[in-house]
Specification:
Leucine-rich repeat, LRR (right-handed beta-alpha superhelix), 4 helices, alpha/beta, globular, 2 domains, 23% strand, six-stranded mixed sheet, five-stranded parallel sheet, 272 residues
Length: 272
């Protein structure tokens, strides 16, 4: 389906109704008031002009629309929900009435690309922090490029699957180029997804346990890195710190611990 013509008289689109349909064009009728959560997620829209009657855009309604470049909101829009246009990597122009309430992360990439806080729109400081971060809801108090997640070492570089999070461990959202999902699975599950998107760093390797691996966890201002014994070296530690944005000085983390796992959980197939 490349085009969707919503019937006249429709006032509300329910959540998930047109998710994953890869729509290239939608025509919404005057009289439309509410666009439900995730209803156009992963569409291929390039331009979006909303009817003058739309009052609310719900959670993630147009999230992960990679092709979307321009959004025009009506003057009467009242509420743009959390993550409504997050993960729209090519968004270049947005027209939003000043009276509209904008939820957290509604224009994440758009604001971040302009060196602004994706939550409140405030200009970031020299470290990438939001001066208003203490006012953000749900405990989001810190650096915007802090991650937790999984990693493998292929002998040359880290292969990572990451999720934005705060120092408290509160999850943000999955990094876009890893399947646009909100949660992380196991190493085996994530490896299968990397294979599907043909990540070149896999070098054609089929098994998830071919390379030594590990995990980064963040909770209560402490980062814990669980990893294969061969990876607990200064060189690889620095790469992990850089890749996951782990920094006590900049982010205010109380502790960063590297924990060698001798249980065999992160061992390769050849070591079993």
């Amino acid at each position: 389906m490349s085009m969707l013509l919503v019937p006249e008289g429709t006032k509300r689109i329910v959540r998930h109704q047109f998710k994953n349909l890869e729509l290239e064009e939608i025509v919404l009728p005057e009289g439309m008031e509410w666009i439900g959560a995730h209803c156009f997620r992963l569409s291929k829209l390039r331009r979006l002009v909303l009817p003058s009657t739309v009052r609310k855009i719900d959670f993630g309604a147009f999230s992960a629309c990679d092709w979307l470049e321009e959004v025009v909101m009506p003057e009467g829009i009242q509420d743009i929900g959390r993550y409504a246009f997050s993960e729209c990597e090519n968004l270049k122009r947005i027209i939003i009435p000043e009276t509209a309430h904008i939820g957290e992360g509604a224009f994440y990439e758009y604001r971040l690309s302009r060196n602004c806080c994706p939550w409140c729109g405030t200009k970031l400081d020299e470290h990438g922090n939001c001066p208003q971060r203490e006012t953000h809801a749900q405990g989001w108090t810190g650096f915007l490029r802090l991650y937790r997640g999984l990693f493998w070492w292929n002998g040359e570089k880290l292969i990572t699957v990451k999720v934005h999070c705060a120092q408290t461990g509160y999850r943000g959202y999955s990094v876009p180029f890893f399947g646009k999902r909100e949660i992380l699975g196991s190493h085996q599950e994530e490896w299968e997804i990397l294979k599907k998107i043909r990540n070149p760093d896999l070098k054609g390797v089929q098994r998830y346990d071919t390379f030594p691996r590990g995990r980064v966890e963040i909770d209560n201002f402490t980062a814990r890195v669980f990893l294969h014994p061969d990876l607990n070296t200064p060189k690889i530690q620095q790469k992990i710190l850089h890749e996951f944005g782990l920094s006590q000085e900049i982010q205010g983390l109380k502790e960063i611990r590297f924990i060698t796992d001798h249980s065999g959980h992160y061992h390769t197939a050849d070591e079993r």
